[in-house]
Amino acid sequence: TDLGAAAGTEDELTRTVRRCCRDGQGLVREEDVLALSRVMVTADSADHRMLVLESLLATGSDKCLRMFVKLQGLSLLWSWMVDAEDDGVGGQVALRILETLEHLPVMNRNVLKDSKVLSQVTRWSAVQPHVTAVTTAPVADLAAADERP
Fold it and tell me: How far apart are CA 89 and CA 86, in angstroms?
């Protein structure tokens, strides 16, 4: 996603995301995770959301990703999932959200249920099973494992 990569044309939200993510390296510091989470609340365009999702996908630090989940990142993603339904489950933002969910270190089903992400993924898989089958496999595996005695 190119949100005015040329000097002087980027908006403040784009600059903040790029600063947090070290221009594509992903999140590396805890304060960057907090800043990115704050940005997510105001990111309402598809381009901004794609930039945030790409930044999360570029993050290799499990510590930063766990902190994102702890800071209600899944609830923020859920709100984006609801918005993405307007564009269709097969839309770019929806697919990138599913890829991001696959990348996040979610340790139990309760986290997915509390954030409403699990119910949204379930709804999406009913609408577009061919789109969500591969990308939601880790979420489905976690949910099934959590139900075992």
Answer: 8
Query: pLDDT of 77-111, one tens digit each?
Result: 999 999 887 766 568 898 899 999 999 998 888 88
Q: In whole numbers, what is the pLDDT of the chain averaged over residues?
A: 81
Q: How far apart are CA 77 and CA 83, in angstroms?
A: 10
Two tokens at 57?
A: 């996908």
Angle (CA) 20-24-28 rounded to 5° is: 45
Question: For 46, phi and psi rounded to 5 degrees?
Answer: -60, -40
**First and final C-alpha spacing in the chain:** 44
* Residue appearing with tokens 């598809």: 46
- 65 φ, ψ (degrees, to nearest 5): -65, -40
Closest C-alpha to 111, from 64, 141, 74, 148? 74
Determine how many CB atoms are found less than 10 A away from the CB of residue 35. Answer: 17
Question: Which pLDDT does position 139 carry in this prediction?
Answer: 55
Which token pair is 132?
């969500």
Q: Which two tokens stand for residue 75?
A: 């609830």
Give the pLDDT confidence of 129-149 residue by residue, as tens digits: 655 554 555 555 555 544 444
- Cβ neighbours, 10 Å, residue 89: 20
